[in-house]
Design a protein that fits this description.
- By secondary structure, the protein is α/β, with parallel strands linked by helices.
- The protein has one domain.
- It is built from 20 helices and 10 strands.
- The chain has an 8-stranded mixed beta sheet with strand order 1-2-5-8-4-9-10-3, sandwiched between helices.
- Helix 5 crosses helix 11 and helix 13 crosses helix 19.
- The protein is elongated and about 80 Å long.
- Pfam families: PARG_cat_C, PARG_cat_N.
- This is poly(ADP-ribose) glycohydrolase.
- It is an enzyme of class 3 (hydrolase).
Length: 461
Amino acid sequence: MSSRPKVQFFHDTDGILWSRMLEALQRFAGQCELPDQHISMKDLVGGITSIRSLSSSSSAGQEEGTSLGALKAAAEETAAFYSAAVVQQTVAQLARWAGQLPALFPDGLPMLDQGVSPSSPLSLSLTRRQCAALLAASLFRALPPTDSQQAVCSGWLPDFDLSFVLARAKEKTLCLLCYFVRVTTSSEAYLNEVVSFARRSVDGQALGSDFWRAFLRDSPLGPAEISDGCIEHSWGNLQADFANKYLGGGALHGGNVQEEIRFAICPECFVGMLFCSKMLPNEAIYIVGTQQFSNYTGYGGSFRFSGPYQEQESIHRADARNRRGPCIVAFDALCHPGEKQYSEQLIIRELVKAFVACQGDPEENSGERQNGFATGNWGCGVFGGDPQLKSMIQWIAASAAGRDLVYHPFGDKRVDGLQAVIQALRSRKASCSDLYELLQGNRPNTTFQRILAADGNCTKL
């Protein structure tokens, strides 16, 4: 681990600036903790703004970094859920945690960089307190900017910066505040629970056409079912994150689709954006142990925070590594593949990506195995994928990896025929290779039709 690149902290790179920030954080926390001291929401936001301004390095950064319009609006709305005293104590604790980075990370924080060997996945375990401290540091802008982190990492990193959210995304800011209140009022046992991040790959060269066309000739398609629920509530299964190749995608900007919403309601996922570089085509990233903190409604432009989520602790039992929560797998689909998505080359690309996602967390054996792969219309929104094609690709990949497919269609009419296709292929006892052959040479929205029209051997139309 010592040879891996590490996240840059101000206390390592700029001692003078860190001293000024630490003094400001401690002073602000002390003011918030004074007995019978009531600080208005306006002044709380002003205190955060003042500390953030210490590390602003450009006029553009200063403008967005200190104009916290969404935070101001969200702070006022929290009165419907939390008392002013609770919010004040929450902000004080966040300032304390932000100032404790040197103590919380005495050996630094390793990156999970791209190019990991298939035989040697990378993993990193953080306590909930450490996750909260990193997010608190970002709240106060007490971390060096992404370009400083980029200097030590070979792959390009996502932008781990709360500035846009705090300035312009009120609903995401409400989710963050909800999370912050929960963790700052939690027990020591809860704060010592673990959230792990892992990166693994497969040998893409070995998973070419011969593998899918011939090696899996005797491998039957596994069980598949359709679920009307949400992926995030698919307990006991790997839970798909329809990721951008940069973990989180637009989660800290204006995006409000599947990945961005999952990160907003499970903010511990944001932490991975600090140290997980861009995924290669044969890689996936796993986040285990994070929990949901907010309820929500809507999607895209209609996304809204709808109050604190009451986690049912009995649903998730802590595993041998003290992780209590689902296994989320981030894997990115092709972006705007157009007609080329029906070519064998791009079908194989998606099969490899879905196959590595279905490999599971490297430490899965420390708890109950996730039998199923809970997924849906992966890459079929703004990325322009064909959900009929992608559902079949994911079924093949899950079957090849020994997982059941649990498909969440989200009401997409384009996959209304999925149940009939599953039944037809199961009744024919089709293999993974049989279905792979049927995916060749399709056209938009014709995959299901071609499969249902195939004869009993599944290969002849």
